[in-house]
Amino acid sequence: MSLEFLGRKLGMTQIFKESGERIPVTVLALDPCVVVQKKTAETDGYSAVQLGFEAAKEKHISKALQGHFAKASVAPQRFLFECRVGADEAEALNVGDTVACASKFEGVDRVDVAGLTKGRGFSGVVKRWNFVTPKQTHGTHEFFRHGGSVAAGSYPGKIFKGKKMAGRYGHERVTQLGLRVEKLDAEENLLYVRGSVPGHTNALVRVRSSNRG
Q1: E strand spans, the chain
Q2: CA-CA distance, 53 to 98, in Å (whole number)?
Q3: pLDDT one-digit tens code per residue, 67-122
Q4: How many domains does the structure of the chain reveal?
């Protein structure tokens, strides 16, 4: 278990190494997070910290959360998230501390990035499940992109759960494991990782150190 950061996906670009190799990268903005609450094994049964991300106006925060932030003497935050950490790592953090990505990802070679994929709306089976379309000749008409038969005739006489059919496509949590860190800009709190990560531009992502070599 390691400390996670909440950030935003700024988009993709490319960087060049000294050898001339061109590397496609995704730029992640990991602004400092604030420790809002700590949980310990003695009081809560497990060790974790609650972090806040992006400052918010008090009028946009509910009364309950206003009290929560006031108790911690922390400015209102737009997003709250909890991450499990070891007891030693949690002990080193105090409520109100600001944690910057530069202090956690310095020297890290690979990270795991989790986010929501782009929402595609209601889609058919060809786009959603990559079904093969039938021949568009020899009597086929009106059913070029349909799924075909979905159940047996007499037995069992029903459609089993999980059948690949048309429906909502995308907008699901996906985690990219072991992405290589190509560059860390500590001053601007920017992390450059090789390849693509889930989500649209400016989407929220969670980043943690990876245990994959």
Answers
A1: 5-16, 22-29, 33-39, 48-55, 77-84, 98-99, 110-116, 119-123, 167-170, 173-185, 190-194, 204-209
A2: 10
A3: 999 999 999 999 999 999 888 888 888 899 998 877 788 889 999 999 999 999 99
A4: 1
Tokens standing for 99?
A: 């944690």
Residue 155 counted as domain residue: no
Q: To which residue do tokens 């700590």 refer?
A: 38
Q: For residue 53, give the amino acid letter.
A: F
What pTM did the predictor assign?
A: 0.85
Identify whether the C-beta of residue 116 lies closer than 8 Å to the C-beta of residue 173: yes
Within a domain: 113: yes
What is the domain range of residue 195? 5-120+167-209
**Domain holding 52: CATH number?**
3.30.160.810
